[in-house]
Amino acid sequence: MRLLLRSALALGLLAALSSCSGPLPSDHAVASREAPAASAPDRDALARDGDALLARAYEQRQSNVEVEGEGSVAKVLRDDTDGSRHQRFILRLDSKQTLLVAHNIDLSRRIEGLKVGDRVAFRGEYEWNAAGGVLHWTHADPAGRHAAGWLRHEGTTYR
Q1: What distances in angstroms separate CA 99 from CA 35, 58, 59, 74, 126, one per listed residue?
Q2: d(CA 87, CA 19)
Q3: SS3 assignment, position 60
Q4: Judging by DSSP bridges, how do beta strands 134-136 and 65-76 pair with one another?
Q5: d(CA 108, CA 92)
Q6: What pLDDT was estimated at residue 126?
Q7: Lower CB count within 10 Å: N or C terminus of the chain?
Q8: Range of 25's domain?
Q9: Average of per-residue pLDDT values in the chain
């Protein structure tokens, strides 16, 4: 069932991504300012390591890969409101690979005011698809069975 839902989500998102260039690649959680932002050298290393892992996962068609990194918003998409609601946007990594982020806004707060060019750090699960891939699980799992992810934008961490 989980695989079927993931496949449906990935297929539904492919159409939205077709206009992007390059390989595309119960409590409600609250945003917090608790997690300190990484220093510039740490951010650079994190971005390089995350870029390399995502490039490898895309090339090898891997899914269920826990990743962490940072990128710039290339495009803000409409929310996916079919089933669980997801805020969607495309990140361009420093490697130039792009990645669709599907952030569950039923389990975490949306990033308000997100715009093209903003930097967003992330931790979540990468799922391969022909369009380049999807990053999801960018929030805590209410059932506690999945590694918690997060997004960080302008000093605020969304879990």
Answers
A1: 23, 10, 13, 9, 9
A2: 18
A3: coil
A4: unpaired
A5: 22
A6: 96
A7: N
A8: 2-158
A9: 78
Instruction: Tell me how far apart the alpha carbons of residues 159 and 137 are, in angstroms, rounded to a whole number.
Output: 9
List the one residue out of 1, 141, 49 whose CA is nearest residue 149.
141
Q: Which of 6-20, 99-113, 137-151 has the lowest mean pLDDT?
A: 6-20
Cα(104)–Cα(57) distance, integer angstroms? 22
Number of Cα atoms under 13 Å in the Cβ half of residue 98: 18
Tally of CB atoms within 10 A around 123 = 21
Kindly state the tokens that stand for 145: 């069975």
pLDDT at 44: 58
Number of domains in the chain: 1
Arithmetic mean of pLDDT, 122-136 = 91
CATH number of the domain residue 121 falls in:
2.40.50.140
Global model pTM greater than 0.85:
no
Query: Coil, strand or helix: which one is 97?
Result: coil
Nearest to 122 by CA among 75, 34, 54: 54
